[in-house]
Amino acid sequence: MDATLENTTQTTMGKVISKVPEVTAFFWIIKILSTTIGETAADFLNVNLNLGLTVTSVIMGISFLVVLAVQFKTKKYTPVVYWLTVALISVFGTLVTDNLSDNLHVPLQYSTILFTIVLGITFAVWYAKEKTLSIHSIFTPRREAFYWLTILFTFALGTASGDLMSEALGLGYLTTGIIVAVVIAIFAIGWRLGLNAVLSFWFIYIMTRPLGASIGDLLTQSPVNGGLGLGPSTITIGFLALIIFSVAYLALSHQDVVKDPLAEEGEDEQRSKGTFWQLSVVIGILLVLSVGGYFFREHQLQAQAAVTAAVNNAAGHPAPLGDLSKFTSITQAMLTAVNGNDWVTANARANDIEGAWDNAQAQLKPMNPIAWTHIDDAIDKVLREVRAVHPNQQTAQAALQQLQATLQSP
Asked: What is the pLDDT of residue 2?
């Protein structure tokens, strides 16, 4: 170990101390629970507490940075601090993608590509500086900075790709979860059979984000929108309790402490022979499957849109997006609630129209992207008004009346 590295390494009585946990079954269990909370907690703060996306993002961003600063100041791996950082970075990473989609209207396709490129650059710079991507040897501030930056981008990428599959491509929460679970299983088996450990770890780590998000959506969304209707507050509290129990157990048992970071890094590097070729093959296969699958699904949606348009024309619904009576009905119910100052019901109906619109995106948008965007913008305005911390009856009524008009002639 050179002098510079030695001066910045966390040590106890001359022994190098890792700042992150060993990868055990508990690691993956808590990780998936944390990613699910990242989805449900963001929804709970944004929707149920009516904080709004911007306020929620600011609060969670500040909370994450404060806890991350504490994590950097710790001298060794501390389960409570580490996993609290993961939980908060999960929520914040989710909000980064949500802000791009909802506030800046960046398509999920572009977000997925953007975060893939940024994550690849982060890995390249990390390796160029440290000559390793081993997650067993995070014992210097610079390595830890790369580690947490990578994790942030994996959460943002996982959110974008998961939403792209479940919403934009219309696969739904269950199908998306199954596809992601199969990919994770393939990498896990490959890991056991000799696929590079570092390569396998980071690919699985990325994929657990859309898996957790799919689980969260499946559990919390209403049955009408393809979920089980358990609600974000119930799942957030329940999963948080499981995380606390697991972290408490690890803090007492020290089961996930990396015993010898330098030795494990050496083992990782020893097993890294041929990594370039493995990486090339894996990325090539994933690109072929993902890009091919994307365009195949897009072709399916375009064909379905053409059939739907023909059916609508024959049934006397020649509007750009066909029969939108379902959304008109929800909008009227929301307006009735707002007129009566019943904001609880208004928020419930807001959840209904948001979920129904997201689920219908894959079928409706290909029919007429311009008309779809007009309605999408009108729905976003309604959601902002109804979910405001201090909602204004008049502006909410105006937004709902505008949505009604847009639904009738988008």
From this structure: 44
Name beta bridge partners: 16. 11
Q: Is pLDDT of 342 > 70?
A: yes
- CB contact at 8 A, 385 and 391: yes
- When pLDDT is averaged across residues 49-73 and rounded to a whole number, the result is 87
Residue 90: closest CA among 307, 223, 192, 243: 243
Cβ burial of 290 (10 Å; 0-12, 13-18, 19+) is: middle
Instruction: Give the C-alpha distances (Å, rounded to integers) separating 349 from 55, 73, 154, 331, 342.
Output: 22, 45, 33, 8, 11
The whole model's pTM is what?
A: 0.80
Expressed as residue numbers, the domain containing 379 is 319-408
We report the CATH number of the domain holding residue 391 as: 1.20.120
Strand partners, 321: none
pLDDT at 269 (0 to 100) = 62
Exposure class string for 332-348: b at 16+ Cβ within 10 A, else e: ebbbebbeeeebeebbe
- 39 occurs within a structural domain: yes
C-alpha to C-alpha distance for 339 and 391, rounded to whole angstroms: 12
Query: pLDDT tens for residues 254-288?
Result: 888 877 666 666 666 666 556 677 878 888 898 89
3-class secondary-structure state, position 16: strand
In a domain, 304, yes or no: no
Q: Tens digit of pLDDT for each residue in 298-331? A: 888 888 877 777 776 676 666 678 788 889 999 9
- 217: which residues sit within 8 A by CB, 6+ positions away? 39, 166, 173, 227
Q: In this structure, are 46 and 168 located in the same domain?
A: yes
Q: Determine the distance from the C-alpha atom of residue 83 to the mean position of all C-alpha atoms in its chain, rounded to a whole number.
A: 17
Whether residues 240 and 346 share a domain: the answer is no
